[in-house]
């Protein structure tokens, strides 16, 4: 993923930004929310991205504008990273010319049941490294089908940023940093705000048009979303099982290699003692260390992300089933009332 031409702040501005505390809430302009939803929804089944613009006011990050990024086809290399950076810089320059909010405050993307968050870590790390207040807005088209707009805001936690910056994801490093799969992303509350003129316009529209009742929230069919979520859950569990098998193989191979190394060193040291007793020069041990080189410790990054996905899928199943029961009890009460 490319960072799409993050703004080049001056060193003084970057130092001031790095000292700021992260926002506690994210306020999304209604027009920005509609732009994100339209871009992500009309581009399905492709996952698309865009850049968020706005400003932070005290402890609230206000997102007041956004623009989509060109679709990047990895197979045909339709748009390379250089072109995307040029496009981003030119768009921001035009917005700055017409005196519109142009400060980069993050990016948005499409994600189905959180399936894209793992591949978004590298891009989000680059954003937060350059713009400490940057957030990731995720739109889930599948969860939005039932009448609930699913727009969520995420940021990488400070502890995960430190570990990711050091590129050390061994088991010992994760234990020492007290990092678990709960500590990758932190979700922030999202609120959608309208200006006074927009609210006045909506009131006028409501007076002019008949109010129509939307029954999407009472839809009793739960099979499509639940089946897709369970499918993702099973696939992720299989991937995690493969990761665990790979780590078990590493442990067995490492134990066997270490035993062979110690055995060879013991034989070499016994031989050196006999050579010293005979008045000969001892043999070096470097060739043995090179021949029985221990394997590198594998990264637990993938296992950490997969565990986070499994936890999110299970939590979504719990929430979704709870809402389904509430709708069924409500539908039964309406039938009894009739």
Structure overview:
By secondary structure, this protein is an alpha/beta fold. It has ten helices and eight strands. The protein has an eight-stranded mixed β-sheet. α4 links the parallel β4 and β5. α8 runs antiparallel to α10. The longest helix has about 55 residues.
Write the topology of this structure.
Blueprint: H1 11-19, E1 25-29, H2 30-42, E2 49-57, E3 60-68, H3 81-97, E4 104-110, H4 121-130, E5 135-139, E6 151-156, H5 158-166, H6 171-176, E7 185-188, E8 190-193, H7 196-208, H8 223-277, H9 286-291, H10 301-337
Helix pairs in contact: 8-10
Provide the descriptors you would attach to this structure in a database record.
338 residues; alpha/beta; 8-stranded mixed beta sheet; 10 helices; 14% strand; elongated; disordered N terminus
Largest sheet: 8 strands, mixed
Which class best fits the helix and strand makeup?
A: alpha/beta
First and last CA, distance: 56 Å
Strand order of the largest sheet: 7-6-5-4-2-3-1-8
- Oligomeric state of the chains present here: single chain
In the predicted model, the low-confidence regions spanning at least 5 consecutive residues are: 1-15
Q: From the alpha-carbon coordinates, what is the Rg to the nearest angstrom?
A: 27 Å
The share of residues in helices is 40-55%
- Give the tally of β-strands: 8
């Amino acid at each position: 993923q490319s960072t799409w031409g993050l703004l080049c702040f001056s060193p003084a501005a970057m130092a001031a930004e790095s000292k700021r505390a992260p926002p506690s809430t994210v306020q999304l302009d209604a027009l920005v929310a509609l732009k994100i939803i339209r871009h992500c929804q009309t581009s399905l089944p492709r996952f698309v991205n865009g850049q968020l613009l706005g400003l932070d006011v005290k402890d609230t990050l206000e997102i007041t504008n956004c623009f989509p990024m060109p679709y990047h086809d990895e197979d045909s290399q339709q748009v390379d990273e250089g072109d995307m950076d040029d496009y981003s810089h030119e768009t921001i320059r035009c917005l700055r010319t017409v005196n519109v909010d142009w400060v980069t405050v993050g990016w948005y993307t499409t994600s189905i049941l959180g399936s894209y968050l793992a591949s978004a870590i590298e891009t989000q790390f680059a954003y937060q490294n350059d713009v400490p207040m940057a957030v990731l807005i995720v739109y889930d088209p599948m969860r939005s089908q039932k009448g609930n707009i699913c727009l969520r805001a995420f940021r990488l936690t400070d502890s995960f940023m430190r570990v990711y910056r050091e590129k050390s994801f061994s088991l010992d490093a994760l234990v020492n940093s007290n990092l678990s799969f709960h500590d990758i992303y932190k979700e922030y509350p999202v609120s959608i705000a309208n200006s006074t003129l927009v609210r006045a316009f909506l009131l006028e529209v409501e007076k002019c048009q008949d109010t129509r009742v939307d029954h999407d929230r009472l839809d009793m069919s739960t099979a499509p979303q639940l089946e897709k979520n369970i499918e993702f859950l099973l696939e992720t569990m299989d991937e995690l099982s493969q990761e665990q098998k790979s780590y078990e193989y590493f442990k067995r191979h490492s134990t066997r290699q270490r035993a062979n190394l110690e055995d060879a060193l013991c034989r070499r040291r016994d031989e050196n003692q006999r050579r010293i007793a005979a008045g000969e020069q001892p043999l070096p041990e470097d060739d043995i260390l090179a021949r029985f080189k221990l394997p590198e410790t594998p990264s637990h990054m993938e296992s950490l992300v997969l565990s986070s996905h499994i936890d999110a899928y299970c939590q979504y199943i719990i929430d979704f089933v709870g809402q389904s029961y509430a709708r069924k009890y409500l539908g039964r009460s309406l039938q009894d009332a009739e």
